[in-house]
Amino acid sequence: MSGESSHKLLLKQTVDAVHSLSEDDFEAFYALFKPFSAKRKEILTFAGTTERYLYFVIEGLQRMYYADENGREATLVFSYTGNFACILDSMLSQSPSKYYFETLSQSRFLRTTYQQIEDLFRTNPNIEMLLQKGLLGGFSGLLERLVELQSFTSEDKFRQLLKRSPHILQIVPHKYLANYIGIDASNFSKLINSVQI
């Protein structure tokens, strides 16, 4: 299978898991996307700028994070192969982001602009439904994450993360996992040893 056809199949599998499209509708959606590559530790969206793109991850690892005025960072979301990724609130509202979107490894994507998506969903109810269902799934995930942050111990947060993404330990550097959970990186190895995996 060629690179392009395997990327197309991966995108189709991800789309079908959200909302199945007819062949014509999927082809119209797929036609929006163009290949894009980024180096390791490249910031694709800076805080203060407006997100212009929706990315579909073909290869690599990325994170969305918040940085305060003292340079402290809070990792909010990881993305990797088979995920859509962007600073969603900035893209949908077309307003400046409060967050950064950064590659943690060399990454390859398919990407499209917000304007292209908006133009297509205005004329295609199935694409609009795909976006609505995708947003609903993202919103549900956000609510689950808020419950974790406010109610769970570090161990419980770690267990939930492993339950959602069992392979995460193999692809994300431990310092970023520690930051995501909200503990000091020096305590992360103790956490791994204390949690039954």
UniProtKB/TrEMBL annotation:
- Read off the Gene3D superfamilies from this record: Jelly Rolls
Using the record's annotation, list all stretches that form the Cyclic nucleotide-binding domain.
Answer: 38-124
What protein am I looking at?
Transcriptional regulator, Crp/Fnr family
Q: Which domain of life is it from?
A: Bacteria
SUPFAM superfamilies in the record: cAMP-binding domain-like (SSF51206)
List the lineage, top down: Bacteria, Pseudomonadati, Bacteroidota, Cytophagia, Cytophagales
InterPro entries reported in the protein's UniProt record: cNMP-bd_dom, cNMP-bd_dom_sf, RmlC-like_jellyroll
